[in-house]
Amino acid sequence: MSVLSAVPFLKPVHVKSPRSAPGGQRRHTLPASEFRCLSPEDAVSVFEIEREAFISVSGDCPLHLDEIRHFLNLCPELSLGWFEEGRLVAFIIGSLWDQERLSQAALTLHRPRGSAVHIHVLAVHRGCRQQGKGSILMWRYLRYLRGLPAARRALLMCQGFLVPFYQKCGFRALGPCAVTVGDLSFVEMEHAVRGHAFMRRNSGC
Is residue 17 among the annotated active site residues? Predict the structure, then answer.
């Protein structure tokens, strides 16, 4: 069950209202900008953005299409998508984890009794990068998590060159991550969901 409608500031946000047509009749247009939880129906759009963003950099995707569908069926309330005129431009997918640090199992499991939100992936459409959308979406997502009773902290793993970006988002490095993917190694990072202000800053993401 999605908690989106249960938390006031997590209701879908329309940044701009549809304009009225000449003569006072309202056009049936999509909101210019909307933030909402993702659904399994969004999986293909998610995968297309993710594949383009990651394949050229690391040679693989954090989540494959079947895994995206898996998490969007199990815990859609731990995802957040940014839509512009109905088109997905950026997204985050997470799941719950019940250990202090991430392990290989965290890549595929959702632990409903966990208190840590494992952020599997943050990706921005190639046509919308260098606009600060990644940091804005992360700010909204962390704000979103404060409304979830189970969430106490957020965890993620990233390659070293992304550490400064996530530090600007308020994450702190915990050290090398136990998870490896092929020849890739990662830094594990943590953000306390409660009691810490998140400094919103523009970034290149």
Answer: no
